[in-house]
Amino acid sequence: MKTICTKFLYFFAFLISIFHFSQSIKISGKVSYKNKGISEVNVTLKDTYDGATTDKEGNFSFETSEKGNHILTYSHSKYIEVEKNINISNQDLSIDIQLKEQVNEIDAVVITAGSIEASDKNRSAIISPLDVYTTAGADAQISSYVTYLPGVQKVGETEGLFIRGGTGSEAKIFMDGSLINNYFSNSVPGIAGRDRFNTSLFKGNVFSSGGYSALYGQALSGALMLESVDFPDQSSYDFGISPIFLNASLQKVNDEKTFSYGISAGYSNLKLMQEVLNFNTDFNEAPSGFNGDLNFRFKTKSGGMFKYYGMFNNDVMGVKTASLEPDSQYFLVDLKGKNTFHNLSFKQKFGKYLLNVGASYSFNRSDLNFSSETNDIQSSPTRLLTDGNYLNFKTILERKINRRVTARGGFELNQAREELSIEEVRKDYKDLISSAFLETDIAFSNRFSAKAGARAEYSSYLKESNFAPRFALAYRLDKDWTTSFAYGIFYQNPESRYINSGAKLYFQQSQHYIFQVQRTVEGRNLRLEAFYKKYNNLIKVQNIANIPGQYQPVQAAVNNQGDGFAKGVELFWRDKTTIKNIDYWISYSYLDSERNFLNYPTTLKPGFASEHTVSVVAKRFFPKLKFQTNLSFNYAKGRPYYDIVTENGTNMIRNEGSLKDYSSINLSFNYLPSIGKKDAKAFTVFVLSVSNVLGRKNMYGYNFSNDGNFRSAIVPPVNTFVFVGAFISFGVDKTQDAINNNL
Prior knowledge:
Layout: H1 2-22, E1 25-33, E2 36-37, E3 42-45, E4 51-53, E5 59-64, E6 68-76, E7 79-88, E8 93-94, E9 97-98, H2 129-133, H3 142-145, E10 171-175, E11 178-179, E12 202-208, E13 222-228, E14 236-241, E15 245-253, E16 259-269, H4 271-276, E17 282-299, E18 305-322, E19 330-350, E20 353-374, E21 377-378, E22 382-400, E23 405-422, E24 425-443, E25 448-459, E26 464-476, E27 481-492, E28 508-521, E29 524-546, E30 553-575, E31 582-596, E32 612-622, E33 627-636, E34 640-647, E35 650-658, E36 662-671, E37 674-675, E38 682-691, E39 701-704, E40 711-714, E41 721-730, H5 735-741
Parallel strand pairs: 1-8, 1-9, 10-13
Antiparallel strand pairs: 1-2, 1-5, 3-4, 3-6, 6-7, 10-11, 12-13, 14-15, 14-41, 15-16, 16-17, 17-18, 18-19, 19-20, 20-21, 20-22, 22-23, 23-24, 24-25, 25-26, 26-27, 27-28, 28-29, 29-30, 30-31, 31-32, 32-33, 33-36, 34-35, 36-38, 37-38, 38-41, 39-40
């Protein structure tokens, strides 16, 4: 019996020992972020099948039979993965841990103060070529399109982007990072120049109405950054025909999509439309011009990208207007212009670094002849000839240090030489602006990010340097709402036409303060923005001699004693989803601006600034019919006007007032059928566009006689303009792009 009992005790002890060494240990705990529990965190023992997922309070619990030293891992897509060393013995473990948020490039809040962006997920701006083409009243021009966005004034008598109380020269336009000089065609007084560049050349363009990046300079008010297309989808042949122009283009791309080239040519002439429509402007020589361009793109074996674009155009125009002076009947202006532009850019990754290099060259000639006519006898013309040569070089080196920090820096050279001659007056202006810049993006979390940078410049003409710090902060209030604040100092050289004396001049300066609240959900965007701008060192001129027909001093006392401010609020709402197949947006801007600059005798509301502006755009697409109709409306409260003269060496206002309110309703219709056999279709877009459908007689200002007793209104060349055209593409079906753009 004793032997049996002893064996039983040994056996029982053996079972106890087996149970002891194979019993499970419980591992539990809580996973938190900023002391708040996190759900759906995967907690596992590394290299085992043991683990659990946290509940909505962040708690987890699982059992394991493992012993000894192990690694416990915590993983979640929105948080930095953590590995914690633990020792499993004979006791249960309770482990609490705090995770750090992982900054995700898609989820992270994007700084958008001063600019309009489509969404946090897609960083590209809403300005696409198709958006421009399908907006009634935009006339297929990017610069006209942005007048339907908040912050941009509708100024029809001269070219340029007039942003938040700034002049047209205070906004700059860039292509692939390089400055475009003379983006607009040459013009005559009272008639604005058009975009020189084909809208289809660009993709994902970014418009900033203030507080823009330190990578760009020499703009007091805003910047438009245009990015050219990398590679076309496939080879194509395109033709465009209308009563006012004829153009054709060829684009070839190899099968591997490593090389492409293209060429285009076009001719325009307004003479036929002048015969059909009732023009306000008497063109004694109808506006006409010839243009062409060439491009090529190729990828290197290491993934780099070269892009080249070159273009040229010439234009002629003659305008005849009734004279306000008693000694002549008519005033005549004749224009002959030439322009060429070349841009070469290179982008390449070198390990952790991204290199962007760009260079551009442009030449522009404006040949204006001013004369008067009495009883069919024309006076000897006064010739104003201006030649400009511009060279830009820019390089940017960028490194993504980690998921939270990206840094970029570089330098830029802008060289300008302008030669002006009018009668006995000759002016030769030369300047080299050397710039260096540094900028960093810091994502503190998915809710909070910052951009900080600075730019320094030196002008060889002014013999002055500047330093411009800029920063912006953005915070996500919740999933759909973000808020941001931007501040920056911006400098710009005085316009060369005002640099014609021995006076010591400095950089003009502006300071931007911008606060924005934005809500973005699928297909809908709401943006509210408030801004304040302070101007210092603006150019003041005491006019002595004018070029006939326009304010451009040839001999004047010039200084930097001008100043001013601009403040306001803006609203932008766009909705693509609420109503099926309809895309619409509404923008409103309130602007309070005053300046004492140029020949203003005192502080005044600028003649180019309207206090209230409203734009409404609506697009309706009928997919089965492949038909689209577009409607747009523009309104601007009447701008002030001034008749400023110099008497006894002092500038004074002789006449002043307010213009009537501006408004315009525009319509366009697009039909996109496919023509031909299935394997050889020509994809066609037929366009009918009517600007200012109701024929409202808008005006932009007044011209005054020398004695101030007579005046004439500055009006658009035509009240209502009708455009009919066809665009045919062999090889690329554009119809689906049009459908997708509006769904």
